[in-house]
Each structure stands twice: as C-alpha cells, then as structure tokens.
Design brief:
The chain has 14 helices and 12 strands. With 367 residues, the protein is an alpha/beta fold. The strands form 4 sheets. Strands 1-3-4-7-2-8 form a 6-stranded parallel sheet. The protein is globular and about 70 Å long. Bound molecules: adenosine-5'-triphosphate and magnesium ion. Adenosine-5'-triphosphate binds next to α3 and α9. The site of magnesium ion has 4 residues, from α3.
Amino acid sequence: MREAIIRGTPDRDDNGPERGGPSPDAARAELPVDPDEKLRPQRLQEIVGQRGVAERLAISLEAARKRGEPLPHILFDGPPGLGKTTFATVLHNELGVELNITSGAALDKKMDVMPYLTNAAEGSILFIDEIHRLPSAVEEFIYPVMEDFRVDVVLGEGMSARTINLPLKKFTIIGATTRSGMLSAPLRERFGIHEHLEFYDTDDLAMIITTNAAKLRATIVQEAAWELAARSRGTPRIANARLRWVRDYSLARADGHISLSVARDALDMQEVDAEGLDRQDRRYLETLIRVFNGGPTGVEALSATMSVAVDTLKDEVEPYLLRREYVVRTPRGRQATAAAYLHLGLPAPPPVQEEFPLFDPQRRLFE
Ligand SMILES: Nc1ncnc2c1ncn2[C@@H]1O[C@H](COP(=O)(O)OP(=O)(O)OP(=O)(O)O)[C@@H](O)[C@H]1O
Ligand SMILES: [Mg+2]
C-alpha cells in the first residue's frame, strides 16, 4: 500500500504524539497549500511533455526496481511551475514508497534536518524544495548522507569533543531549485541525476488543459484549449490557473461552456495579452525600454524602479522573457530586443552604438 505524502513531519504520525526530536514546524509553515494538488499527475504516464526527462526517469525507476535499491539522488531545476514537485510526487507513487517534503528555507540548522535523515525509511524519498536556500553548514552536513548514508555528529566541545558516525537507511534525496547556479558544486555533484525542466510547447499545454478541464468538469472546445495554451507562458501551473479563471468566467458570463470567444474574453479581462504576457511582464519590458532606454541595465535597478523583489524578477518574470527573446542578458545587464519594442507597439530601438567601429580608416595604411 502506498504511503501518504508526509509534509514536513517525519517525526509525527497522524494518530500519535510527536516521537521526539526537533519538529520541523517551520517546514510546515513555509510550505504553501497548492491549489493545483487535484490536477497534479500522479503516475509517470500521466506526465505530459518533458519527454526526455520522463523517459530517463522511467529507466532509472526500472533499474532501481530490478536492483531492489533506492533511486539515485535527483536534482530538478527550472523555472517555477514546470513540474519539479510533480516529478517527485510521481516517482514516489511509482515506487510506492514514503515521501517526506521539506524546503531548504526551513532547514536553518543541522538539527532541523536531522529528523528527516534519521526517520527516513529504507528506499523512501526526501524531497527538499528550494534546495539552493540550504545554508552551507547544512549542505556540508548532508554530504556524507548523500554519499555513504551516514551522519557525523560531534559530541562535546573542545578537547573532549568526539565525532560519532550514525548509519542511516538507504534513501533518495530529490532536490528542486529554480537557481541551480546558486548550488555549490560539491552539492550539485552529489546528485546522480540532474534534470533541467524546460518551458512546454503549446501542443503539450493544450493537452494538459484539455485533461484538466475534464478533471474540473468543464467543457472546452479544442480551439479554446489552444488559445489558453498559447497564452500560458509555457507553464502548466499558469495554464491551470488561467483555466480555472476561464471556467469561472464561462459560468458567470456564459452558459458554462468554454468556447474560443469565452476564453479570449476571459483572458483579455485578466489583461493577459496574445503572447500570454501579463501585466507584470509588460511592466518589466516597459520599464526597461522607457526608463532605461532599452538597457543594458542591472536587475537591481529594474527591481527598485518597479518595486518588485529581485528574486521575483529573476525567478518568475525573466526566464520566460529571455526564452521568448524579448530580453537578452549581456555582461552589462538586461537589454530589450527589437521583438520587445514590437510587442509593446513602440517604435524600433535606436541603432546600437558600436564601442569599436567596424570600419577603421587606419587599417588602410597597412593593407
Ligand atoms: N508534465 C506535466 N504534465 C501535466 N501537468 C503538469 C506537469 N507539470 C506540472 N503540471 C501541473 O502544474 C502544476 C505545477 O507544477 P509543480 O508544482 O510540479 O511545479 P514546480 O516546478 O514544483 O514549481 P515551483 O518551482 O514553484 O515549486 C502541477 O500541480 C500540475 O498540475
Ligand atoms: Mg514545487
């Protein structure tokens, strides 16, 4: 029988009191309730898109089953909402093992992570979201866990200090991060599998929308699913949120059926444009173009002008704008491309000032 997902409470069970050890209450507080939980694929075959990743994981799963060993440690990276948590959930379901979930932000000290390690059952999965937020002392503490399934605990202080090695059960750590660049190299290298999740193409998103419309008991025409997919920033979580909105709109303003015109009207009302950019995306481009003359400028300057956190810009806004080539990153900062001007209906950007003119009259002297 499959174990239920335990959210950040390895030392507590449903019926009984705490079993001792520090309880990672912070983990519970940190983890937001996901409104998408109902729509999340549960098995590998329900996963849409990310074909390479899904195929490679299917092989690792089969090998783990045949060897009777836990999966290798896995690191998922990629922008928010592309399926990192979904893949972890699916792997836990496929193997029928226990899953414990925590977040790098909740693991401040070695003692915060300890209960997750000592309570991990053989073959279980420990999912560490936002793993880039682990402090380096905690990172170093889990190196021997990942390599040899042991923790080294120092007892006492000074001259009388001694280290005891505590053996652990063999289990799998799955890390998720939107910033793999912030992970230290030693931590990154300790993951046997490293998968990068990419934005989804419109076909895949349309399929996700059609499936999820059925789960939400909404009827949607193919064209409307496509329209929604094309306007969802290549991101299943955004597609799901927009689907819910369109469904509500269709109930309030129409007969509950999602036609193409209902989908368009609903998305227009939410100020999602034809390319799927929302108000915040357009504000980013407008600020870059109008205030900073198209750039290049640093993300900190954009953040200050827009009054939006740097992390939000880096994690949520920029990846898709970069992917669509509305923005490029240069050594001197972010720069809007001609496509961004065109998208906002602004006159073309001024010609780029060459720092080193291509034509050098002096060259003639030597030719
Ligand atoms: N491959 C997929 N097929 C179908 N639905 C998906 C897929 N990937 C993600 N989803 C849907 O998108 C939602 C968001 O995905 P998920 O929570 O896994 O993203 P995430 O990468 O963990 O994001 P974050 O970085 O914010 O934690 C899921 O609840 C699920 O409904
Ligand atoms: Mg997640």
